[in-house]
Design a protein that fits this description.
With about 240 residues, this protein is of the alpha/beta class. Helix content is about 25%, strand content about 30%. The chain has 6 helices and 11 strands.
């Protein structure tokens, strides 16, 4: 017997994801199998398959991406079964689970300790803990470096450098500028892909960066959108008159 959630999952694929240009059979298969309702807060389970952002935490930017955006992200990354994936922004763990189904392993970071713990518990209950590592930390933390004039503070994006390089990197929230991507892309393997949302509301774009080999990269603009910002993402320098 087909359950209400199974019916809603089928409709999500046919009415939201396919019409938005997601035609990759592997992606459709994963999203058609995974019980998204188990990754949604209890109060919003009835909206698990709706074409909306779903609140997942206390902060205004803590939202679950709509299914069609997730589908486009997964399709763009073209994840292979041998790829090790780096995810920035674990959230509820839904995208993490999708990435794990497609790739070899997922290394994910989440700035919110509570969300990280909850995602870890959900993923264990789904039976995929061996291929997933979640760290509760800031992917764009401040690094202090001694200098002749005192201490210099810079953004540090080396949170997962001990597990790099990666075949794919997924940045699941928006960042206001392209600057962090020039450093993140260095953690890709040759042929690796980096997906990110760049810009500030109401104008953002989804971009894909592919490492062609060595220091050669290709960047593509995929589509316009507007998604919640990552907490503590590097901000552009303020213009001074």
């Amino acid at each position: 017997m087909t359950t209400d959630f199974e019916h809603a999952r089928f409709n999500m694929i046919e009415q939201q994801i396919r019409p938005w240009g997601v035609l990759d059979d592997k992606v459709l298969g994963v999203m058609g199998r995974l019980p998204r309702e188990r990754f949604v807060p209890d109060a919003y389970q009835g909206l698990a398959y709706a074409d909306i952002e779903i609140p997942i935490g206390e902060g205004p930017t803590q939202r679950m991406l709509p299914p069609k955006i997730v589908g486009r992200l997964l399709q763009a990354l073209e994840i292979q079964s041998t790829d090790r994936v780096y995810e920035i922004g674990t959230g509820t763990g839904y995208i993490t689970a999708c990435l794990a189904e497609l790739g070899e392993a997922v290394h994910s970071v989440e700035i919110d300790t509570i969300l990280a713990d909850q995602a870890r518990e959900r993923l264990i209950s789904e039976g995929t803990p061996g291929r997933i590592e979640i760290r509760a930390l800031d992917a764009f933390g401040i690094k202090q470096t001694p200098s002749s004039s005192g201490v210099t503070e810079t953004r540090d994006i080396s949170a997962m450098s001990d597990t790099a390089p990666f075949g794919a990197i997924a940045v699941t929230g928006s960042i206001p500028t392209h600057t962090p991507l020039t450093l993140l892309r260095e953690q890709l393997t040759d042929g690796g892909r980096l997906f990110a949302f760049v810009g500030q509301a109401p104008i953002m774009e989804a971009v894909l960066i592919t490492r062609l080999g060595g220091e050669r990269y290709r960047q593509e603009s995929l589509f316009e959108t507007c998604v919640p910002a990552l907490d503590n993402a590097p901000q552009p320098e303020a213009f001074v008159f």
